[in-house]
Every structure is written in structure tokens, then in C-alpha cells.
Specification:
Layout: H1 5-31, H2 34-60
């Protein structure tokens, strides 16, 4: 089953919001300045949403690590 483009985008946004809060906290701890921390986390929020979306779409088109529906119950030793 393939993901729709909007699913990849929503996943990217939700993950980056989580990651940006982490970046905000780390940036504040390092700089001690909330304005710098907000700027850093704000910029990376948008750049990394785009990167994650592209990453997801590339992986969606790869067959690596996937099995066909009929093969799910059968043990596989393929790499």
C-alpha cells in the first residue's frame, strides 16, 4: 500500500514540530538568548520539512525491505 503525498507532508510537519521544539531548547541552552533560539528553530522547521518530504517520497518509491502481500506470512531470509 502506497502513501499519498499529503500523508508524507503531514508526517513531515508533525515530526519537524517535535524536532523544532528540541532545537529551540538546545539553541536556547547554548546561546542563552530566546530570540536566537526562535530564529534557529524557525528556519530549520521549514528547511527540514522539505527535506523530510523529499526523503519520504524517495523511500516510497524504493522496494528495499518490502514484501508482497501474499508473502507476509512466509518466513524470508533475504536481505
Amino acid at each position: 500500500m502506497a502513501d499519498k503525498h499529503y500523508r508524507s507532508l503531514i508526517k513531515a510537519v508533525s515530526w519537524r514540530m517535535t524536532g523544532s521544539v528540541d532545537t529551540l531548547i538546545i539553541s536556547f541552552l547554548i546561546t542563552g538568548k530566546i530570540r536566537w533560539a526562535l530564529t534557529i528553530s524557525g528556519v530549520e522547521l521549514f528547511t527540514k520539512i522539505g527535506l523530510f518530504y523529499v526523503h519520504e517520497r524517495i523511500w516510497e518509491n524504493l522496494s528495499f525491505g518490502r514484501v508482497k502481500e501474499a508473502e507476509r506470512g512466509k518466513p524470508s531470509f533475504e536481505i
